[in-house]
Design brief:
Mean pLDDT: 91
């Protein structure tokens, strides 16, 4: 398995993507709260599933970010 290669700007793109997902996650949380207050279990389940997908996407993107940062550090130490 090859070590990840550091790509300038990729880490910043990961951070931007996580920030965008955080906004969506916040909106999902508000909608979930409203569905819970209304007793709309179908809407509640749907929004909970969407929330989980967005949280997983953010976690996956963070994993990519960590790999990029590790590659950047390894590259700078090798230089």
């Amino acid at each position: 398995m090859n070590a990840p290669v550091f790509i300038p700007g990729a880490a910043e793109q990961c951070r931007e993507h996580i920030a965008e997902l955080a906004g969506v996650i916040g909106a999902n949380a508000e909608i979930i709260s409203r569905y819970a207050e209304l007793g709309d279990d179908v809407g509640l389940e749907y929004q909970l599933r969407r929330l989980i997908l967005h949280v997983r996407a953010a976690a996956s993107t963070f994993k990519d970010l960590a790999e990029l940062e590790n590659a950047r550090r390894a590259e700078s130490e090798a230089a």
